């Protein structure tokens, strides 16, 4: 009998492979911020947040769905009916992240918004060892991650003090932006404000057999950092913020971490500033401190990205790659650990008002296929959904070079 992995490859063979489907029919409510994993049993498990809006709507909850190993083996792309994954009563639950650790334990990270503002996000997680059956995982533990950024007050104010030139003029002449910067400076001096508001977005990585590194970001401070646990969530430590005193490089959030062969860690981030090019930074000490920002020659309209290393040795990056919107979502391949990106191909590409496709979550399954889920909405379609696509490297390389 053919295994699910082999059948999946045969279903796509020969050569380039690409297939995709909506996880559920478009709905009038908001569906956004998905995360995807392959379970040890070969199923695909997805989660997203769902409700009448985002942080300002207290009905927002986390929903999930699965595509079983048996369905995948048969080429069946019909996902299960959505089921609840987490719901904090009367609070918005947002930005879920799934992860299966080396022990085979499933993690769900997310934030519960305490005051309908992103700065009031409280970071939570739950774990499960029983998640291969129908419906939601059976959760056996839940806790809160109390975030304590390293040297945030000092580093953040050094960055603000260094702002000069055009950006200083923009801030000084834009009353809304100036008030936001003033509020962030005040928050940096307040212990509670420094510790709340840190949110998840991208899969964590393992930097050793037991050390997990989870990317966090703040919409108050417009920067990213890393959280670490070496004892499976019993205790957590934190990095310095990924900040750059260069005033032109303010606004980098939602980090995606990749470890290079020499042990350096690269962070690929969303551009939340004014340059609209994808920012990166590098750590040479395991993610504790970070280099000044660099910029890829890939546009970013202020939208989430994810980068993962593939079994082939190539790196895969999925991102919106236009300066003016989320209507094109593309996959890129790098043969040299992110130095160059010679191959790319759009997963979605519509005119500016034709749709919105964003917030990719990316994983490589054991059969060598890349799986990606993302927020999906098209013009002339009543509602939104989460889309799943599967493709291989040959499909990306068949695009432009």
How far apart are the termini? Answer: 39 Å
Give the CATH class of the domain at 1-137 and 345-401: Mainly Beta
CATH topology of the domain at 1-137 and 345-401: Neuraminidase
Low-confidence stretches: 1-11
Rg over alpha carbons: 20 Å
Mean pLDDT: 94
Number of strands: 25
CATH architecture of the domain at 1-137 and 345-401: 6 Propeller
Number of H- or I-type helical stretches: 7
Helix content: 10-25%
> Which structural class best describes the helix and strand composition?
mainly beta
The largest sheet, given as strand count, sense and whether it forms a barrel, is: 5 strands, antiparallel
Strand residue content: 35-45%
User: What general outline do the C-alpha atoms trace?
Assistant: globular
List the helices and strands and how they pair.
Layout: H1 4-12, E1 18-22, E2 30-38, E3 44-51, E4 61-67, H2 69-73, E5 83-86, E6 93-100, E7 106-113, E8 121-130, E9 138-144, H3 152-161, H4 165-173, H5 175-188, H6 191-195, E10 198-199, E11 205-206, E12 212-218, E13 223-229, E14 237-238, E15 252-259, E16 265-271, E17 277-283, E18 294-299, E19 306-309, E20 315-320, E21 328-334, E22 343-349, E23 355-364, E24 370-378, E25 385-391, H7 393-397
Antiparallel strand pairs: 1-25, 2-3, 3-4, 4-5, 6-7, 7-8, 8-9, 10-12, 11-12, 12-13, 13-14, 15-16, 16-17, 17-18, 19-20, 20-21, 21-22, 23-24, 24-25
């Amino acid at each position: 009998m053919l295994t699910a992995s082999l059948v999946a490859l045969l279903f796509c063979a020969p050569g380039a492979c690409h297939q995709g489907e909506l996880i559920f029919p478009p709905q009038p409510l908001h569906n956004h911020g998905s995360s995807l994993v392959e379970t040890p049993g070969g199923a695909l498990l997805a989660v997203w947040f769902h409700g009448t809006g985002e942080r300002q709507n207290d009905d927002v909850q986390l929903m999930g769905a699965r595509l079983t190993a048996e369905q995948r083996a048969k080429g069946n792309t019909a996902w299960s009916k959505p089921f609840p994954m987490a719901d904090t009563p009367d609070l918005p639950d947002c930005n879920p992240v799934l992860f299966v650790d080396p022990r085979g334990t499933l993690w769900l990270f997310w934030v519960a918004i305490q005051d309908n503002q992103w700065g009031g996000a409280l970071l939570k997680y739950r774990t499960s060892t029983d998640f291969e059956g129908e419906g939601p995982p059976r959760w056996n533990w839940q806790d809160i991650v109390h975030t304590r950024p390293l040297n945030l007050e000092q580093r953040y104010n050094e960055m603000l003090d260094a702002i000069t030139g055009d950006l200083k003029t923009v801030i000084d002449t834009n009353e809304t932006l100036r008030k936001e910067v003033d509020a962030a400076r005040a928050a940096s001096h307040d212990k509670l404000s420094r510790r709340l508001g840190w949110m998840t977005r991208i899969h964590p990585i393992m930097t050793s057999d037991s050390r997990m590194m989870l990317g966090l970001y703040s919409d108050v401070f417009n920067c990213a950092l890393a959280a670490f646990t070496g004892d499976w969530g019993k205790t957590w430590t934190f990095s310095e913020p990924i900040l750059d005193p260069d005033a032109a490089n303010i606004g980098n959030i939602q980090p995606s971490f990749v470890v290079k062969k020499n042990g350096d860690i690269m962070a690929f981030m969303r551009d939340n500033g004014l340059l609209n090019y994808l920012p990166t930074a590098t750590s040479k000490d395991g993610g504790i401190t970070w280099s000044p920002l660099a910029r890829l020659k890939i546009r970013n309209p202020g939208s989430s990205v994810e980068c993962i290393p593939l079994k082939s040795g190539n790196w895969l990056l999925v991102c919106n790659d236009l300066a003016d919107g989320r209507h094109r979502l593309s996959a890129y391949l790098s043969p040299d650990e992110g130095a160059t990106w010679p191959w790319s191909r759009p997963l979605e590409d519509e005119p500016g008002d034709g749709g919105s496709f964003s917030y990719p979550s990316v994983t490589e399954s054991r059969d060598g296929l890349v799986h990606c889920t993302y927020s999906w909405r098209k013009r002339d379609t009543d509602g939104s959904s989460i889309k799943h696509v599967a493709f291989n490297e040959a499909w990306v390389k068949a695009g432009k070079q």
